[in-house]
Amino acid sequence: MAVTLEEAPWLGWILVKALMRFAFMVANNLVAIPSYICYVIMLQPLRVLDSKRFWYIEGIMYKWLLGMVASWGWYAGYTVMEWGEDIKAISKDEAVMLVNHQATGDVCTLMMCLQDKGLVVAQIMWLMDHIFKYTNFGIVSLIHGDFFIRQGKSHRDQQLVFLKKHLENNYRSRGRKWIVLFPEGGFLRKRRETSQTFAKKNNLPFLTHVTLPRIGATKIILSALVARQENGSPAGGDTKELDSKSKGLQWVIDTTIAYPKAEPMDIQTWILGYRKPTVTHVHYRVFPVKDVPLETDDLTDWLYQRFTEKEDLLSHFYETGAFPPLKGHKEAVSREMTLSNMWIFLIHSVTFLSGYMWYNIIQYFYHCLF
């Protein structure tokens, strides 16, 4: 499509802004990630002496790194509106988030909307596609203890074994409390046709805005992390008693991400900021883990029901521009999620000062040795 004379200046500004944002992102990564690694190396003696304190400090640095990623979208005008239940009330408990997956921007959106949920981001574990291991952030996720899962039938059983072992070795030993899981096992655009074909063959719900979830990772997480009572039933939380002292995983947070006009955002847009300011909408429903079945068939039905409800939520959103009210409520209440500009300035300042400090330290030892 030809560009008119009136559009040329605007497109020129978009290009210049995108290049400036990309340059800042590169500089940010070149400083922040090496600084994080240097601090982790320096703190290894503390890991031996006081592992709990070490992982707490590491978690704070991890939260700051994710806060920087969130800020890239924030200053491009990409904000988040939250709907449904307020998950701040359970931020100190163990929980698993089950999220629909449309594009790479889903991860950035969650990085933003979880920043104001106390220490959740510091204590979180992500389950993500193994391709992310080879990105600039891969080394940080490896150190933090996130799990990279390889997709495909040929890898599925083996990956579930690896996940179980990873949870046993890294989840509680590193003070993790929340897990983010995308049960669909891939992006909507890639899995929709396969999911719909499977649904037709097996007389299952025909979904358009989400796909039928895969059960394996969810079952492994619940089996590994849900505490058991003496009678073998789950010892989970209760919606009326948020200060529950029960151990283990207590909540399942059904999380639905919706983009205006069903146009998902990718990470390139988040970084370069060439899309007009956009509000992404995130809806939460919280289920006590004691209400979630653990047997395979029952869990499968339960998950299918949740994703059928997601389909209805998204259909309503795309028709009206808002999510429907919670059951028992007359009106839907939304909450605008905000980031503190002062906090963003602080973490970037500390990061660049740390980069300058480590550069001088490494340069000093280099000259001493050579």
From TrEMBL:
> Where are the membrane-spanning stretches?
20-42, 54-75, 131-149, 343-366
Coiled-coil spans are none
Q: Which UniProt keywords apply?
A: Acyltransferase, Lipid biosynthesis, Lipid metabolism, Membrane, Phospholipid biosynthesis, Phospholipid metabolism, Transferase, Transmembrane, Transmembrane helix
| Molecular function, one GO term | acyltransferase activity
Among its keywords, does the record have Lipid metabolism?
A: yes
The UniProt record lists the Phospholipid/glycerol acyltransferase domain at 95-219
Q: Which InterPro entries match?
A: Acyltransf_C (IPR032098), Plipid/glycerol_acylTrfase (IPR002123)
User: CDD domains per the record?
Assistant: LPLAT_LCLAT1-like
- Report the GO terms under cellular component: endomembrane system; endoplasmic reticulum
- The keyword Hydrolase appears for this protein: no
Any one GO biological process: phosphatidylinositol acyl-chain remodeling
Provide the family line.
Answer: Belongs to the 1-acyl-sn-glycerol-3-phosphate acyltransferase family.
Query: What is the protein name given in its UniProt record?
Result: Lysophosphatidylglycerol acyltransferase 1
Q: Look up and give the organism this protein is from.
A: Equus caballus
